[in-house]
Every structure is written in structure tokens, then in C-alpha cells.
Amino acid sequence: MTSTWLITGAGGMLAQDLLARLAADGERTVGLTRGDLDVTDPRAVHAAVAEHRPDVLVNCAAWTAVDDAETRETEARRINADGARNLAAACAGTGTRLLQVSTDYVFAGDAASPYAEDAATAPRSAYGRTKLAGEQAVLTTLPDAGYVVRTAWLYGAGGGNFVRTMIALERVRETLDVVDDQRGQPTWTADLADRLLRLGRSATAGAAPARIYHATSGGDTTWYGLAREVFRLLGADPDRVRPTTAAAYARPAPRPAYGVLGHDGWAAAGIEPIRDWREALREAFPALLAAERR
């Protein structure tokens, strides 16, 4: 049965792929950009939900400038935490399922094995703290209709990201020094969009419990390993990519040294986890290459 989906932050890389996927599957979709809807305005949020009456609302609106959040945490919190709370409050009592997109930054990043969905959180950055506050707001306000979907290391054709940067730099740099002491899971926005679609449908059918889900690709690598794979797919020599440490790049916000997420939660919804990151990157690569070389 066709449902109505409302997507906030519709101008972003993930939202673009999600809207395209929903439309291709025949769902009724409404995409609201930052200019269309200020999620920090409770009245505007309530009005939007009342007008569109979505079955599923996916919150892709977020402050994602990780380093800037260190000195502008109050502003980041208004979007990442207060915005999520406003959306949850507007959905309460309407039957709308709210899918809140979150991040691996809610963890300390010092684990040695994948973080389970119920692992203890301990964000080390302002960005991570504000996203965790958003998670808590959704799960508390909507105990039966709030879904937190954590992801990480996103790339896609619809915006700037690490993979597209590597494609661009391969043409102009003889060698590249890339961080090899941060480990995570490169995740294609199209794969994440697919899981959001499946989760939303399962949620509206009453088959997916309201809880935390981890939506990252299978396997893991470092930024150095990802860059080498990009070079290989370009037909370039991967040895032109050289390993370095995060300490070589001083940045205001600490990055998780280990952001690998476990995927056991999907079993509760009857949905399989996302495939291995290498397989996804191979499929995504032609579109990424075309987008970067336009």
C-alpha cells in the first residue's frame, strides 16, 4: 500500500537519493529543504506535519559541520537536538513513524569490536553530543514510533564527500597522504536510502520495533584503505596513496578512531544488513565519477 513520506533536509546528499528511491517505488513524497522548513521552529514543524500528514517522516536535516560545532555547539544543538525534538513532538499522536538519522560519533571510538546498537554512548565531540541529544529526544518522545538510524562515512553522487574528493585529487596529485589510524565503514547513500525505505514500510506495517538500527556497510577499512580502493577503481596505482596518522592533520573536533558499527538490530525488523562496502563502491563508482567530472 502506498504511503506518504515527508523528508526534511531534502537538499542533502542522502535525502536526494532517498527521494529518488521513494519516487521510483511509487511512494507519495514531500521533500522540504532548509529553506522550506526550519526544524528549529516548533510552530512551523507542527504546521508541516499537520499539512502533509505523513505516514513516515525521515529527518535528514542536520548540522554536519563537525569542526565548526566545537565553537558553535549551541547552534548545532538547535538543529540536531531541538529540531529532532520538535519533529518528534509534532509526530506524537498522529501515527507518523519518525526515522531519525544519526551517527557513529555518539560513541567514544575506542572500541576493539563493532559497537552494538545498545552499546554505551560517550561522544567526544560537540557534534556527537548534539546528535546523541537528538536520538534521546526521539526515543523518549516517541517510544512506540521513534526509530534512530545511525550511519557513517557516507558518500554519494549528490554532494561533496571523501570518495569524490579522492577522484578529483587523483588527477592533480602525484601522491596523497591519507589517514590510516581511523577505521570505519564507507556507506553509499543509495544503500542507506534502501534501508530507510524498507524500515519505514516495515514500521508502518507494525513489523519493525521502534529502536536503534545501525545502517552502515558490511566490512570495514581505514580512510587510507578506502582511498587505495578508489585509485584502483580509477585504474591508478594504489601505491600513490601513502599512509599517515590523524595527528598529522590537526582538527578542532576529535574523530572516532574506531567507528565500526554492529548490525544485529536489523533481525528484529526482518531486514538484512547492508552489503560489503567494496561491492557497493564498485556499483556506485560510475555515478560518482560522472558527478565529479561534470
| CATH superfamily grouping | NAD(P)-binding Rossmann-like Domain
Whole-number count of domains = 1
Q: Could you give the order of the helices and strands? A: EHEHEHEHEEHEEEHEEHEH
Beta-strand percentage? 15-25%
Which fold name fills CATH's third level, the topology? Rossmann fold
Overall pLDDT: 97
- The assigned CATH architecture is 3-Layer(aba) Sandwich
Lateral strand order in the biggest sheet = 2-1-3-4-5-10
User: DSSP helix count?
Assistant: 8
Gap from first CA to last CA: 38 Å
Annotation, overall tally of beta strands = 12
Uncertain regions spanning at least 5 consecutive residues: none
Oligomeric status: single chain
Largest sheet geometry: 6 strands, parallel
The CATH class: Alpha Beta
Helical coverage, percent range:
25-40%
What's the overall geometry?
globular
Query: Pairing-aware structural class of the strands and helices?
Result: alpha/beta
Q: How do you describe this structure in short?
A:
The chain has 294 residues and is an alpha/beta fold. It has a single domain, classed as Rossmann fold (3-Layer(aba) Sandwich).
